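User: New here, any thoughts?
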Amino acid sequence: MAAAKIKKGDSVVVRSGKDKGRTGTVLQVLPKDGKVLVSGVNVIARHRKPTQVNPQGGIDRVEAPMAISKVSVADKDGKPTRVRFEERDGKKVRVAVKSGETIDG
C-alpha cells in the first residue's frame, strides 16, 4: 500500500464541488473508501424526529466524508500544493512540491 499523502491534522483546500476554495483541517482519513472528513466542509443537515432521548428533535448539522481526490494539502501561504516524498536525514518525509518545505503531520 502506498504511503498516505494526506493525513489527520493536515490543513487542506477543497479543489472542487460546492465547497470549492474552502479550507479546513482533516479530522479523519478513510483509506478503504478513499475519503476524508474535513472540519467545516461538506456539512449536511439531518432532520431528526423527536424521541424520548431527544424530545426537541431538530436539525443536526454534521460533516460528511468527501473524496480524497477533491482536496489538496495547503501550503504555508494557504494555496493548494501537491505532495512528494523525499529522504531527509535518513527519514522519509512529506514535502510540498511548490515550496519544497517539509509538511508537519
Remarks:
- The mean pLDDT is 92.
